[in-house]
Fold:
Amino acid sequence: MNGSPRLPAARWLVAALFSLLAQAASASTPRVVLELFTSQGCSSCPPADALVGRLTADPSVLALSLHVNYWDDLGWKDTFSSDAATERQYAYARSLGERTVFTPQLVVNGAQSVVGSQGGAVQHAVEISSRDAPFPVRLDLARQPDGHFTLNLTGPKVSADVWELRYVRRAVTQIHNGENGGRTLETYNNVTELRRLGAFTPGILNLPPLKSPEDGVAVLVQAPRAGKVLGAAAY
Structure:
């Protein structure tokens, strides 16, 4: 009789442990970061959007869609477009020595640019990058019971920035005008917030909870001025 009241507590503890393990398992530390610069107003972009959708199933790959806004005056305003996405694409153009920007452009680990709709070229870039040495900076991203996140940064002393990206995992949008007028588009890991958390320093950061269960959060450690990605984590 004395032991019977402990049984519900024990069951609760086991359930809590399983819950924490499930939360930890859903966080990933990818080896390849893909940033697709896309637009709902671009008729060449849906194949690249679909490719990103397929790549989201690979836990070693973090594929993000950044919707630029320079298509917005051409018949359709992208529901995810932002100045931040456009500025990031131009920063990559400067970093990679490119003369112009385009959609769909896919940047691999901040170091290589390919046409996002060319599946063979994208797959080759992913395979090559997967064989590279692991990122030098380790990021451990964990969701706490109250919904907040803790980010543990470890690694060598490097000059780098820490970036937080919030995204919507999947969106279905009916396009009424522009090059894709009349189509219904599916897009994946659509970035809605992009902010610099500061310079990289080993330690622990606290991040706010997700706004919706359908959202995700990623953190990148990246060399300054849109340089190489040095570490990544996503939830």
In short: The chain has a mean pLDDT of 91.
